[in-house]
Specification:
heterodimer; A: alpha/beta; 7-stranded parallel sheet; 5-stranded parallel sheet; 25% helix; 27% strand; elongated; B: alpha/beta; 9-stranded mixed sheet; 15 strands; globular
Chain lengths: 358, 258
Amino acid sequence: NSETSNHSFQFEIHFKVVQSPKFNQHQHFKMLSTIARRGRQQLSTSISIRSASTSTLIIAEPTNDASALAPSTLAAITAAQKLHSGPITLMSNQPINPATVPSSISHILNTNQTDSLAETIAASVQQAVAAKSYSHILAPATKFGSNVIPRTAAVLNFSPVMDIIEILSEDTFVRPIYAGNALAKVQSTQDVKVLTVRSTAFEKAEVDGSSASVEDLHVEPQSMTEFISANVSKSNRPELSSANIVISGGRGMKNGENFALLEALADKLDGAVGASRAAVDAGYVPNDLQVGQTGKVVAPDLYIAVGISGAIQHLSGMKDSKTIVAINNDPDAPIMQVADYALCEDLFKAVPELTEKV
Amino acid sequence: MKILVGVKRVVDYAVKVRVGSHGVELKNVKMSLNPFCEIAVEEAVRLKENKGAGVSEIVALSIGPKQCQETLRTALAMGCDRGIHVQTDLRGDYMELQSDAVAKLFQKIIEEKEKDADLVLVGKQSIDSDCGHVGPMLAGYMSWPQATFAAKIDVEGNGLLVERETDQGTETIRIPKLPAVISCDLRLNEPRYATLPNIMKAKKKKIDTFQAEDFGIDLEPKNKVLEVFEPPARKEGIFVDDVNQLIDKLRNEAGVIP
């Protein structure tokens, strides 16, 4: 890598250091620096040591509330801890207060570009890996992670593994295929594993404060895409992906106004409201409420499916819930066979009664 | 504008898959055009029908066994102008041919056969491998702008305005200049049924066939599938008689409400 300007040259020399039991990494570095210094003269050299050890870079999920890490980021941190015992770096495009970060994070990178466009994030990761090598690059398996990780993997020339639900070792993972009707145990053969992890499959890491200092990562702006505006649903209820209780409505709700019945129950139980694809397509509720193969995957302690028939694609988004309740006046609806407790009753009678008595 | 659309032949969405000894059983299973690829084809055809977009040609691309020709004929019947079949018998449902190889094949087709492609439309994910990689990976390899989970695409000057789905709702991004890659989500459009006259016309449209091995790409999976198994079955549930019994069970048996 060389640039010429004003007769000065810059070279990067990469040494692959094979750890010798006689010297530690610091001593290796000192030896190489000495060689570099002696060879300097009009040349300036920078040494980049690629060690054989492991290290993970996590791309934090952008949040509206920068005072805390997103639940999906905390789940990704737990996943990272299962990979190996090496250092974990957190990269964010928002300012991070180390007190709000789990202690397992040893380095924090704050990028200067605040947008979350895939081109920007991929360039940020490229910058980060130019400065330091990582064996693993991780993001939550959200729409954000699904947008940025494949592009990032491609620019680094790796093949990503997405939506991991179990980590068996630093190179072996389990991920769902066919809408979760089959699970694949997969082993990555690459030097760097570029991954996304399903948030519902990992506990949120405890926020016990990190002693890491925040390092600035300078990234050049990109002009391939521009962010224009966001259309965000606001709610006082818990966030759907991380709520402990979810009440979802389907086509049986008949219209958007009737979702008020589910909202009342959700408020009583301090839960979130979700929906099937049918309800979203019919315009009853906005798309970010959709639970399913192409919507959000949730795994709350309690999932109540109201007026939902239970198509394969919906089931794939909620079948890992601890307890599933179905309220439907059709005893033959597929969801009734999946539910732990099925109530075959008119939802317009059952839901208000449940809200009142619970 | 020339549009390249990816179309994948996958297990039909309504099929309940069974796990065999070597992955999911595909023998005698109904196969169809991936629903999100269908949405991509529909969007390409709508862009062509909208004279203001200036679409000159839509080329459908499918990678897989010889039956992909049927998948291509469906795309042609919906309104694509011609097809490209990259033949391979490697399994495309994550088992053998994986997204990095697929995206690189797309790249080769663009660089060697369709140099003037302005827009690549693909589905946001295929319902067999559920990866959603090809669109953004291709954009990364080509250093092209990307817009994933597109819910609305508008032509604006030399570029596009795309409304895309996010975790919190939607966002609008601008792609000032083509070429670009867009992956299509559920709400982008509702695909048309091919009419009989169009199905007949499609039989005469051209499909070029190439062999996947001839492009000099490493087709081996970088992520080896060691095993495919069924998820653990849930414990069987019960019917409850009324709301009172439901509350009792939730409170005292499941322990999920106070």
